[in-house]
Amino acid sequence: xxxxxxxxxxxxxxxxxxxxxxxxxxxxxxxxxxxxxxxxxxxxxxxxxxxxxxxxxxxxxxxxxxxxxxxxxxxxxxxxxxxxxxxxxxxxxxxxxxxxxxxxxxxxxxxxxxxxxxxxxxx
Amino acid sequence: xxxxxxxxxxxxxxxxxxxxxxxxxxxxxxxxxxxxxxxxxxxxxxxxxxxxxxxxxxxxxxxxxxxxxxxxxxxxxxxxxxxxxxxxxxxxxxxxxxxxxxxxxxxxxxxxxxxxxxxxxxxxxxxxxxxxxxxxxxxxxxxxxxxxxxxxxxxxxxxxxxxxxxxxxxxxxxxxxxxxxxxxxxxxxxxxxxxxxxxxxxxxxxxxxxxxxxxxxxxxxxxxxxxxxxxxxxxxxxxxxxxxxxxxxxxxxxxxxxxxxxxxxxxxxxxxxxxxxxxxxxxxxxxxxxxxxxxxxxxxxxxxxxxxxxxxxxxxxxxxxxxxxxxxxxxxxxxxxxxxxxxxxxxxxxxxxxxxxxxxxxxxxxxxxxxxxxxxxxxxxxxxxxxxxxxxxxxxxxxxxx
Lengths: 123, 402
Hints:
The complex is a heterodimer of chains A (123) and B (402).
Chain A: E1 2-9, H1 11-15, H2 19-38, E2 42-47, E3 55-60, E4 63-68, E5 77-85, H3 89-96, E6 108-113
Antiparallel strand pairs in A: 1-5, 1-6, 2-5, 3-4
Chain B: H1 3-25, H2 28-49, H3 55-73, H4 75-80, H5 85-88, H6 99-106, H7 113-123, H8 129-135, H9 140-156, H10 166-188, H11 195-215, H12 220-233, H13 259-273, H14 280-293, H15 302-315, H16 319-333, H17 335-343, H18 355-368, H19 371-384, H20 388-401
């Protein structure tokens, strides 16, 4: 079963962390990636640029209109994701609990099953 | 010999050759590489020079030589081993089929079901890692890591290639059957992209189940599983429309069912039901055969289906079985009886919010004339499923009653 573990970051929460804490998050993700690679459960993981760099695109009267900034004004933004292929939902939750963000108040780690997939998986 | 015939011959021989090597040298990983190389050599040589009189012996000899060459070039190993090629390469090749032993090894209890499945397809099914990865819609690197971890685990568990005995053997055989069932299901319920490659999985599962059945013709559950696969596979063309929409059993065009597979599956299950044992696969196959017997949905012998579910519920209690029995009960006693049985499942954690429970309840509410209740449950079921085709189907049902 495939699951997307999405990481919802809060820039204010991240800014309030010490350098050591930030480094620990980076190392924690590194260790987690190694582990799920070895176990054959990682499909891919990607991190996104800061939400301030987002563009929102809409089409009005047949013409595209582009505005700066994220679509949703909120405290938390999608910072990245892990796409995992594992035994079941319990295992996906168990893996999500090992992501450092899960231990930090104000950051969100969400697990949802994939329902449709297509396209190239190999980079 | 044509190319497909070659492939079939090699595909059938590969696990036997691998089994022989593993039994002899007890190094799963090295053996697998050596066998793959021998198979490659065969595909290059045989078309030009003809198939040898003893193709299996040829493969065993070539693979053994490759393995020994590698062992020799591996210094650390050479310290431990003082074997020579002459001692290792056998005069005659034993005629026992080791496919079953290999299946038992791949279905080692230390592995997760996903790993057992992958390893079985790789070692016994003779699929490449890339093929397995495609079938399960994951990158090749992910599948390669999974297979390699599985081999390490088997090695770490110090498992021997000897077939387990007594109760352990029985238990391991159940795991093997479950893994084959999972492989079949993966191919049968292709719910996203790459359907074509995934139907190969159903073929592969049937081929492996046939192999096990040839080895253990007296085992009722082995016959039951093979029959269940054949009877289910017989309906494959009628299950979806050209647009990919699901067609429920009652609405399927039965002219599209594969009569050859139905005849084979029905004969298998009839013969096995006369045997001394009765297990869950046999009962599920008997239910599938009962459906296959009916020329039209209206002619289905629902009493028999219900009776079979009752026995299944007794020997392998499981909320999903009760759910299916509720459908049969509704057909014989009316939808209210079915709903009453469903109500007994409401406290079951395993089914709480499950789309099947919601959709069966919706279906029975619709039959009682409670359109509002049916609409509500179809909508909830549509939200709860992880299959796009199923969601479309349930939304269409909701639209029809709403």
